[in-house]
Amino acid sequence: MEQQNNIIPISLAQALQHWTCYICDVRRSVILNEGSIKYAISEFLEVSKSTNTSKSGCAIPRITRYQFEYTHPVYKSKTMDLEIFYAVGETEFQSLYEFKYARVLNITKNESERYIDDIFRLATISNRNANIDTYFLLLGPKQYVENLLTECHKNVAQINYPSTAKPKSSMQYNENIRLMLSLERVGSQKKFNVADLKSYDDKSQLERFYSNYDIREIKDENCKLLPATVITSELVYTNLSSVGHDDIIVNIWKINSEN
User: What is each CA distance from 107 to 71, 175, 204, 208, in whole angstroms?
Assistant: First the structure.
């Protein structure tokens, strides 16, 4: 069942890949961001509700309904980018997604924390309910994504850090992302403890994450992440090897966690 569950995110990524190629071909890449890609995704989902075959010919589980900006099931003040319900036979399943668009060549502290927070929010759901699949989707210019995930040394040389920034912390902006996500090959995994993520200041990443929430916003204290929580990301799709240096690449990781 595991492999079949990934058919929808893989088909979604392939559709997004074709759409971004078209947008770039007509020289409209300036519109690409985390909001605009929802138009392409909604088109895919609407078509998929009336067909059971992907572009590659694989059978797609039947999508029954979906919702953008879905209220997070644990953190009441946050929303998820996308929720999909799909059926296999008479059984219905749920999957949740967060999207990121690689907007800059050199990642900043705030941008790094946005990636961490998305993956923490996905991991919280996985920790709460093993029957809900959670996915992190990242797309952007190939050179930006490669620099983010595979060429940390370039960032150290190229970013103009504020004079007050500590060099050690500055070098960690990419390190945390590379600890969480792998572009090595489809099926490759990264497994890490929450406590392994390096701090950018006096708080750990987990302390910083929960400092953004009032205790009343958390629906279920039992599913909170702990320093010892193990998060696993598995690359289920990438078109890295099939595009040129300046093209857009699409990547999806499945996120799981356990305390």
Answer: 28, 11, 19, 19
3-class secondary structure, 75: strand
| DSSP state, residue 215 | G
Q: In this prediction, what percent of the chain has a pLDDT beyond 70?
A: 84
Token look-up 């960032």 returns: 155
Measure Cα distances from 74 to 15, 196, 213, 217, 224 in Å.
30, 23, 11, 8, 9
Burial class (CB in 10 A: 0-12, 13-18, 19+), 117: middle
Radius of gyration of the chain (CA): 18
The 10s digit of each residue's pLDDT in 74-101 is 888 899 999 999 888 788 889 999 999 9
Answer for the pair 219, 228: CB distance below 8 angstroms, yes or no.
no
The DSSP call for residue 59 is B
Q: What are the two backbone dihedrals, phi and then psi, of residue 44, each rounded to the nearest 5 degrees?
A: -60, -45
Alpha-helix runs per DSSP H in 55-166: 109-128, 142-149, 152-158
Higher pLDDT: 203 or 152? It is: 203
Q: pLDDT tens-digit profile of 22-57?
A: 888 888 888 888 888 999 999 999 888 766 655 555
pLDDT band (50, 70, 90) for residue 134:
very high
What DSSP string runs through 141-191? EHHHHHHHHT-HHHHHHH----TTS-HHHHHHHHHHHHHH---SSTT-EEE
Q: φ and ψ at 25, to 5 degrees? A: -65, -35
- What pLDDT is stored for residue 170 in this prediction? 45
